[in-house]
Amino acid sequence: MLFLGKSGKLFTVGFSKNSSRQYAIWDPKNLSAPLVAEEVDTSAGLIMPFFDDDLNILYLAGKGDGNIRYYEIVPNDDKLIYFLSEYKSATPQRGIAQLPKRAVDVSVCEVDRLYKVDGAGKWVEPISFQVPRKSDAFQDDIFPDCFSGEPSCTAEEWKAGHNGPQKTRSMAPGFVAGKKPTAEFKPVVHEEEGPKNEKELKEEYEKLKKRVVYLETEIAKRDARIKELEK
């Protein structure tokens, strides 16, 4: 189960009576029936849910398969949840973890990053979810202030009934504008190095003379074969 942040709703995953994987959205003030209940598929693995409270994006990763479906939560809409897209992989996942929002790469418009543990538990693969934008400007509409990681109050204050607002931080300081490639022309000069002194010059001369003799011999052999064929 997940708490869907500012919407105040609860999100649960599980199985239906016919063993299909399903999810449901609940109003914590009235748990007699779910607001939304949908079947996902008939796979046997558990669904691992992750929620991005800043953008209201919900990720559902199937344990034992390679699919990650993601949805948008719209609190003021009667439907509440809308399917966005799906990440597919032939490699099954054993577990998934979500990177804190303050650590994503805003320079490439990365809105979320999940870390996938393969089925054998031997390696971890990062899966980046990015918005396809080409602007070099900071995208403040998809990067609102996020949770800073600091507690709103101390344990003693919480026990006393205090409940402060969540502390947030700007995502802008983490933005690094991409460097635009510049065209540069660098001519390549091929320098042929010759003999440097009299000794090397003589050695080079002897090599060339032997090469000439070899080539003259090969030409003479070829001419002899041609004459034999003409006969």
- CATH domain fold name of the largest domain: Methylamine Dehydrogenase, Chain H
Q: First CA to last CA: what distance?
A: 98 Å
Tally of discrete structural domains: 2
Shape: elongated
Assign the CATH class of the largest domain.
Mainly Beta
Name the poorly predicted regions. Answer: none
- Counting DSSP E segments of at least 2 residues, the number of strands comes to 13
Rg over CA atoms, rounded to whole Å, is 34 Å
CATH superfamily of the largest domain: YVTN repeat-like/Quinoprotein amine dehydrogenase
Instruction: Let me know the largest β-sheet.
Output: 4 strands, antiparallel
Class of secondary structure makeup: alpha+beta
Number of helices: 2
Strand order of the largest sheet: 1-2-3-4
Q: Give the mean pLDDT.
A: 86
Helix content: 10-25%
The CATH architecture term of the largest domain is 7 Propeller
Percentage of residues in DSSP E strands: 25-35%
- The helix/strand order is EEEEEEEEEEEEHEH
